[in-house]
Design a protein that fits this description.
By secondary structure, this protein is α+β, with helices and mostly antiparallel strands. It is built from two helices and eleven strands, in the order H-E-E-E-H-E-E-E-E-E-E-E-E. The protein has one domain: Rieske [2Fe-2S] iron-sulphur domain (Rieske Iron-sulfur Protein, 3-layer Sandwich), CATH 2.102.10.10. The radius of gyration is 16 Å and the shape is globular.
Length: 178
């Protein structure tokens, strides 16, 4: 084992993060216990409160308990949405914190940022190729070319902020090309 690997492993052990070979702390996937923070704008890096999510979506990144914002990969970016719980599928409810749902912002077609939101139909829209996803039904594909649903990130509302409680529901972004 190289000196650099030993130092990284000891550092990760000391702060309780599973060491990921060669991964930078800001690129590590969301971990249980991370809190969600604003991804962009004046509030970038500020913990998202329940009141911050109204009718429009909020883009977020996970932040470790040590304060590392995991913004080093689009695959860590999520969209937070406030939805009508009574319309959510059972699978969607399992990942949501009441009316708040965290959905991967990386399209499953080519990995573009899914930034379009149509609240009237509860659909996320990828601007690159027009894929549409039904967030009430576990982000299933309504219109391709994406063939797979967006990943859901399980969260809980802990004292007004949103904490990651598990792994993404599926692979984030497109399948790798071989």
């Amino acid at each position: 084992m190289k000196r650099r690997e030993i130092i990284a492993a000891l550092g990760a052990f000391t702060i309780g993060i599973k060491p990921v070979r060669g991964a930078k702390p800001d690129r590590i996937k969301p971990q249980v216990g991370d809190v969600l923070v604003h991804a962009f704008g004046e509030k970038a890096g500020v913990v998202i409160q329940s009141d911050d999510i109204e009718t429009d979506r909020v883009f977020a990144f996970p932040m470790s308990p040590e304060g590392v914002v995991r913004r080093g990969s689009l695959h860590n970016q999520v969209t937070l949405l406030r939805l009508d719980e009574s319309l959510m599928s059972v699978k969607t409810k399992r990942h949501a914190a009441g009316p708040i749902l965290a959905v991967s912002a990386a399209c499953t077609h080519t990995g573009c940022e899914v930034s379009g939101w149509e609240p009237e139909t509860n659909e996320l829209v990828c601007p690159c190729h027009g894929s549409r996803f039904d967030v009430l039904d576990a982000s299933r594909v309504l219109l391709g070319p994406a063939a797979k649903p967006l990943a859901l990130l399980p969260i809980a509302n802990i004292e007004g902020s949103f904490q990651v409680t598990g792994k993404f529901s599926r692979r984030v972004g497109p399948e790798p090309a071989f």
